[in-house]
Amino acid sequence: MHLDSLIVLGYRFAVWAAPRLPQRFGFWLFARLGDLAYLLSADGRANYQKNLRHVLGENYSQAKAKRITRKAYQNSLKNYFDLFRGHALNEAQVYAQLESVEGLEHLDNAIALGKGIAGGSAHFGNFNMFVHLTAVHLHKKHEVVVPVERLKPDAVHEIVTRQRAAQGIELVPADAAGRVLLKKLRAGAILGLAIDLDPTRTGPIVNFFGAPAQLPDGAAVLAIKFNVPLILAFNRRLENNKCAVVIEPPLELERTGDLQKDSRAAVEKIVARMEHWIRNEPEQWILFSPVWQEDTNKDVQ
What we know:
The protein is α/β, with parallel strands linked by helices. It has a domain at about 90-295. Helix content is about 50%, strand content about 15%. The strands form two sheets. It has a seven-stranded mixed β-sheet with strand order 1-9-8-2-5-3-4, with helices on both faces. Strand 8 (about 230-235) and strand 9 form a beta hairpin. The longest helix has 25 residues, at about 60-85. The radius of gyration is 19 Å and the shape is globular. The termini are far apart. The relative contact order is 0.16. The model has no long low-confidence stretch (mean pLDDT about 90).
């Protein structure tokens, strides 16, 4: 059987099986799959530890890096468990996954302005929970739109798109998202945008944990250009596998008329918030691609 067909069958099986697993066993099982991924993913481990060197700085040690990296792989696979079963969760079950939620008033106040919202989050904790919570909290009265890289094979992308639609979340392929996002924002939608990875390599190079890194500016540009709030949210996965969500107050943005200058200043403010969260709990940062300029073509020693 062709590899793509096997991937699609595996994904369909996971979507069918995950909601039927006892929750506690499911998290244990996917954590063990995370252990396996940690052992098998040499490139991913290397990339993650490149990133850790910047985050930990002088506190970096090989033993500490191995412990954090393994935990990150476990958290990443637990996120897949939540993804596979998310379409089957009702509103009460979504809230049952939350240990705490801070800052919903910031979201409600922004919506009350009658504009769209540029929402930003890093690959931190169970990062999908922010958009999932937003869709549930708003009872699908406002569109929640998330640009994503096109998954391969196409059948998997279609399955994930249907799953998210069942949760009240519209996925838009990133390679065709420009006009769609503008249209949705003008119609009052809430955009869920990544703030820590720039696959397009078009964002500004800014100082991140003391070294230059190219980071996305989509959330900043949209918020400034269309005069809508820019709200960041961070979500930690706790040891009991519940989530602690913090929705921060809208960032104070400069709007001088110089979009490039103002958006760069906004990205620098975003960076400061990311540094705060990642520094405190680096194992929650689940990003296995090199972020910093000096690491793009450099192996971990």
